[in-house]
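Handout, page 2. Input:
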Amino acid sequence: MILRVALIVLCCGALFFGTSAEAELKLPYKAEGLSKEQAAAYLLERFAFGARPGEVEKVAQMGPEKWLAQQLAGNLPDAALDKRLEAFPALKMTQFEMSKVYVSNGPIRRILQKEGVVDPTKMSRKEMNQKISAYRKKHGLRAYNALYNQELKGQKVLRAVYSENQLTEVLTDFWFNHFNVTTRDGGARGRTLSYERDAIRPNVLGEFRTILGATAKHPAMLNYLDNADSRMAPPTQRNQPRRKQEMASGEMGMDGGMMGGEAQPPPKNRRKYGLNENYARELMELHTLGVDGGYTQQDVTEVARVLTGWAAMPYKNARKNLEKQIAKGSNNLVREGEFVFRKTWHDQKAKVVLGEKFPAGGGIEEGERVLDMLSEHPSTARFISTKLARRFINDSPPDALVERMAETFTKTDGDIAAVMATLAQSPEFWAEAKKRSKMKSPLELVVSSLRALEADVKNPQPVMSWFDLMGEPLYGYVPPTGFPDYAESWANSGTLIARMNFGIHLATGKIRGIELKRLSRDSDGLTTDEALAVYGKLLLPAQDTSAIASEVKQTISPDAKRKEVQVISMLLGSPEFQYR
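Output:
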């Protein structure tokens, strides 16, 4: 952590002697005519999921620089959040433990049939389900779909709403989209929780090479983009890349199923063995260099050859066999957690990647070398900087700032916190403060609403349907690009109506599992002016609300009851709140 803060300071051309990081951060908000309160509100919109009641004043009082330094460190205590996360037991399990606990009905039914407990030909579905439920209770098993539909999605919402380390949560969402996998792919589905928890979240403010390597070796990515199946083979036996539409149908990885899910045979036209270029292509196009990053199709093929043998630990008997070989000291297997390198699958012939020669006889170190090369490439520095600037500034970020961020990326070996510090201290970032140029994604809209109204999220599950309606089903984006980060992606007629309806349902208390602490309990309700004074400050802190207030007054009838509900609905649906 000390190294990270030091790098942040060095990127600004200042010395750091271990006193206070905020003293070295220079946020030029005053040059844009912003007060401390306005600067605090802007930081909370861009580097957090919006302000909670009183938070703008708190950040202004401590100083925007100090708040930002804390967020760049990402290690604030989170006891209240941790308490809420106790509802999700999978968060404390290893990936393999999850595979043993979260099991679908099919494998249990087959066990019970083998034991003679159930007979589908003589037993009703209801009676069979009762037997399955009894088996689950006896053996402590949980429903397979609860892992990704309830725990995975639920923890994301709760972290975004309640975490004190807001920048960590914002960047976790950013990097997950950058290194996207989807629960609509059978091989990634049950592994997605550990993918985000172990490969993404701990590394969002560290060095880019670390997060790149963690995602490259995680079984979710290995299965999603098929590298778990890629192995040495003659050119005539290479696998053709699978389309994402096929992946969306739930096709499984090579271990024949995931965590008790129903095993599905491979398509008849798919060869069992061979080279697969899916991951190699996305590694360069989406994860590092960018589509115009200076690589060729031949480089894609060569990187795919380099990464042959990079696979995932299987389950069931195949796992036991590998563990026995590893225990005996096999030279053909290298295991790191759930990642395993299979030397017998690796193409050991000579290769050339981006003009660099790889001599014959190499092994796992070839893949590490390629990841090093890609992380250090100038195209990667610019590509990553562009995406970060787009997320935190606007859809068309200034080239000059992108270049400065890329320079910091290169000088600090890809230190993400240092790159974020460069962005935050730029005049270009603060020039956007009064423009409100970034449309909130559905996740940002929902979470910022819940934070501003101090919601008590007793059950995050009912709100999940709203993400679907607004076009952002959590963890459900099939293409490896991840959800897009442009306003046009969210601003179509269907999703805009859903956004309006969300505000109405939230304000009227029609979303189960959510209680708004800031909603007046006065039976007579607030007047329109009183409601605007209260909720305008909560939802649009440190902003000039005169224009929206005038519109609200013209819309709400003097005879209307519960005027505060209508005020909240209109404020949530206003452009002033929909954009950040």
